[in-house]
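Lecture notes, unit on protein representations.

Consider one protein chain, 228 amino acids long.
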Amino acid sequence: MIETSTRPCSVALSQDFNVEWHEETLEGPNHASVLGIYVEHAIQYAREQSMMPDAVAVSAGPGSYTGLRIGVSEAKGLAFGLGVPLIAVSTLETMVSTVMFLHDLPEDALFCPMIDARRMEVYTALYDRALHPVEPVGARVLDEHSYDEVLRDREIWFFGDGADKCRDLFNHPRMHYIPGIRPMAREMLALAYKAFRNGDFADTAYFTPYYLKDFVATKPNLDKILKG
């Protein structure tokens, strides 16, 4: 599993639904200089443990152009060289999955992972506990009323490196902040395993991740989204 969508860079190996090995750095962005080393270490560990890879999973974004390009290129090369499928895992869903494993939250909780961008812009989505997108992935310009409609009836948990903008901009008794959540390779396991089990594979030759530059920032009408 390879994660390079934001500043951290990380690689992990799993077997029998357990993370057996991982290596990571939070001091980024330096993906070009460390990812190849981490992958080499992972291959060496797999050989020592007689582990035969069944698939290669990579973060699909949204994320930075450079980071994702480096990560996806490495993952495609590995998948092609090993003759195994490529699995693309949503960066935002990985963050939500991490929160659900770490925190016991209400059944009707809504999850809002945020990746920081320039000024008051974030890249985000809104999910329920089943990882169904209540609000689709996109770029959002935050203001003091961004989530007013939803917060009338539902509680939202915000996290990721873009969530600090919400904390500084507005406050509400139904808004909750979870610090320290970053997309990491070792946290991709559950989603990667689900995709592998369901045969949900990306096209190794043509897969393209969700680059941040592909999104146009908007102010979402969440009330309209929730009511369909």
